[in-house]
Predict the structure of Aromatic compound dioxygenase.
Amino acid sequence: MSHEVHGALYNGVPKPPFELSYPDNPDAITDNLMKLADLAPDVRDKFLLKNLITHLHAFVKETSLSSDEWLKAIKFLTSVGHTTTNIRQEFMLLSDVMGVSALVDAINFPPGHGGTESTILGPFHTDDAPDIEQGQSIASEGKGEYMYIEGRVLSSDGTPISNATIESWETDSNGYYDTQYVNREKADLRGRLRTDKDGHFGFRAIVPVAYPIPGDGPVGQLLLAVGRHNMRPNHIHLIVEAPGFRKLITMFYPEGDTWLESDAVFAVKKSLVVKLQEVNDEAEARKRGFPKGSSFKLLQRDVILVPEKQADLKQ
């Protein structure tokens, strides 16, 4: 009778080619780990690992972390993992509220070359956004106040970019993404379209609303524990791509929202705050494809992409 054993097999890596001291004191533990990190074959992996060890061990020593605090942290991260599913990314949400996502974005995509500024992806992106045609809606009827978004996708030198892909997603008027509904059957408030030969794009959506990030999981509990709110200002997400250009992940934030300057995930940049125009013209509403009513909000904004060769240059 055979028995299957999980995780108990020797991985075949030989013992290190040098002596390690017994971990009889805190510094010996750190020193041993740094020596072992030098065995990493990839130079970048070695660099990242040694810096992680340095700062993580320094944190433990500087704070005199207790066993109970360490266990509390382990249980918290375990809970984050258990909460994460294929449509709920609690780990990314944790990265967001700790400012790590925004920091990585700021370091990797500093403003420059005249391009539209980037921001974080957020935890609610999915891979099933439907393809739509110009002028069509990313939202099913009844999801919120009508909004039309239009503009052009341009290179940083002003050249229109044809056939660029624009993917967009947002919440409904209740502040929920489609993935937050247990009865989700298909994607809603999501869509993907392409620019025309002159770089133009236009599609129907709804006016975004401010909303709380999920408070029913460990990240929500963390914010409560440290006295932080969990609100995000109103916004609509965009991913814009075209061959030969740096991929842009960004959001547009309608002006006037209460939470713009204290966004729970640190993702608002001043250049991404936009003005919505009020249109009250029934003929214009029908022309743009809205099925009823006479009013809608209009967001007009060009998107500027940076050529990859230019983006690779020092900012």
About this structure: The longest strand covers residues 146-155. The chain has two domains: 26-65, 90-311.
